[in-house]
Amino acid sequence: MQKTLFDKLWESHIVDSIDGTDILYIDQHFIHEVTSPQAFDGLRRRGIPVMRTHKTLGTADHNVPTINQHLPISEPMSRAQVNKLTQNCDEFGVELYQLGHEKNGIVHIIGPELGVTKPGMTIVCGDSHTSTHGAFGCIAFGIGTSQVEQTLATQCILMNRPKTMRITVDGKLSKGVYAKDIILYIISKLTAAGGTGYFIEYAGSAITSLSMEARMTICNMSIEMGARGGMIAPDETTFDYIKGRERAPQDEAWEKAMGYWQTLKSDDGAVFDREEHFDASDIAPMVTYGTNPGMGIKIDASIPEVENIESFDKSLSYMNFQKGQSLLGHKIQHVFIGSCTNARIEDLRIVADFVKGKRKADDVSVMIVPGSKQVEAQAKEEGLDQIFEEAGFELREPGCSACLGMNEDKVPAGEYCISTSNRNFEGRQGPGARTILASPLMAAAAAVSGRIEDVRELIH
C-alpha cells in the first residue's frame, strides 16, 4: 500500500492504541518557561521523575527581556518564570539553555541550528509553533500543559490521528516574494480554519527550491490555518543544512542516518485526504489587514468588500480600516523583525541587504530581535549590526519579544506595527496594538519609508 510521509512516521511511532486513540512515542521534547511550571509541579506531587531527560531540552524565550540580559530580570513575572524553569531543570536533571547562555534562544530556532531537529522524528513542545520543525520531515506539533506533563513522565502522548492534506506549490516565485508571502497567500486562500483537522505536507517545485530557513517559515505558520502541523520531505537541502551541526550524527552514524532519511517521502500514488494546488507565479508580496492571519491580501490588492459578517466588520473596526481600501502608502509607527517565524540569519541578511546605506523614517521605531544567541553572534560577525545601527534600527538580544507582547516589548494602543511574526490577533502585540503581518523585506521597506510599500518597485 502506498503511504504518505506522515503515515509512515506516525505508524512507526505508535506504541499502542486505546479505543482508536494512539499512544505516540516522542523522540524530542522542547520546554520553555511559560508552559512547563505546572507540568513539573504535577510530577513533583506524584513523585514521578522525567522519564528520559536526554530527550528533553529547555530554553528561556517567551517572557524574557531583550535588553540587558546580563542583568537580573526586573519584571517580576518574567523573573519568577525564568527562575522556576532553572529550578525545575536542575531538580529533574533536564538540560537547559538559560538566559544569557551562548546557545539560548527561541525554542524553535535553537533546535534546528544545534542539529537536535532531524528528519523522521516526532517532536512536541508546549507551544503551537512547534510545527516549525516539520520542515525537516518531522511530525512536530504543539501541546498543552497537561500533555507536557504526560510527555515528561512517559515520553509518549495520547493523540487522535489527524487527516492528511498535501499543498503543492509549483512554478517560479516572482522577485520580492519570500516564504512568508507563500504561507500568507495560502492561508488567505484556505482561511484561518481551512486546515483544521489536518496535518499538511507541502510539496512542489516552489517549495523544494526554498532554503531550510524559508521552509521553516512555511511550516511554522501551518498552525495559523488551523492545521495540527506542517511538514516537508527531507532532501539534499535538508541534509546539507544538518551536516556538521553540533548534534548531527557523525561519521558512520551519519551514513546510517542518511540511509534512513533518504526514504522519508510520500510514495508515488499515496492518497491524501485532501489536495490543494497553487501557482507560484500568482503569489505576490502579502500583507494582512485584519485580526487573523487568513485576512491577507496581495500588496497591490484592496481589502475585500465582504458583507453581513459581523466578525469581519469587527476586525476592520479594530484595525481602523475600510472595505475596498488599499494598504499601499498606509502610515505605520513600528516595525518588528523577529519571532520564531522570521528571526534567523537569512531573515536578517535580507533586511540588511535592503537597508544598507539607508535610514529609517524619523517617526518609526524599528526593533530587530534575533532568534538566538548564535544568530546574534553571526549577525555581528557579518557586520549586520553596523548596518542596522547606521540605519537607525535597534538590534536587541534574543527572545520571542514583540511577537506576543508577553514581555516588555509591546506596541502602544492604536498604533500600527508591520511585523514578521505569525499572529495578528487583537492585542497580540500589546493591548490595542494593530498588527500587519508581512515578510522581512516588506517590513524593512516600511521601516525606511514609514509607510507600507510594494517592495517589487524598490528592488532591482
Number of DSSP helical runs: 15
Using the alpha-carbon principal axes, give the shape.
Answer: globular
CATH superfamily of the largest domain: Aconitase, domain 3
Radius of gyration in whole Å, from Cα? 21 Å
CATH class of the largest domain: Alpha Beta
Molecular structure report:
The protein has helices spanning 5-12, 37-46, 76-92, 107-114, 145-154, 179-190, 205-208, 212-220, 236-242, 251-261, 310-319, 345-355, 373-381, 384-391, 440-449; strands at residues 14-18, 21-25, 28-31, 56-59, 95-97, 122-125, 139-142, 156-159, 163-170, 198-203, 229-231, 274-279, 286-288, 296-298, 334-337, 365-368, 394-395, 416-419, 434-437. The protein is α/β, with parallel strands linked by helices and 460 residues long. The protein folds into 3 domains: 5-159, 2-Layer Sandwich (Aconitase, domain 3), CATH 3.30.499.10; 163-282, Aconitase, Domain 2 (3-Layer(aba) Sandwich), CATH 3.40.1060.10; 306-457, Aconitase, domain 3 (2-Layer Sandwich). The strands form 5 sheets. The protein has a 5-stranded parallel β-sheet with strand order 5-4-3-6-7. It has a 5-stranded parallel β-sheet with strand order 17-16-15-18-19, with helices on one face. It has a 4-stranded parallel β-sheet with strand order 11-10-9-12. Helix 6 links the parallel strand 9 and strand 10. Helix 12 (345-355) packs parallel to helix 15 (440-449). The longest helix has 17 residues, at 76-92. The relative contact order is 0.13. The mean pLDDT is 97.
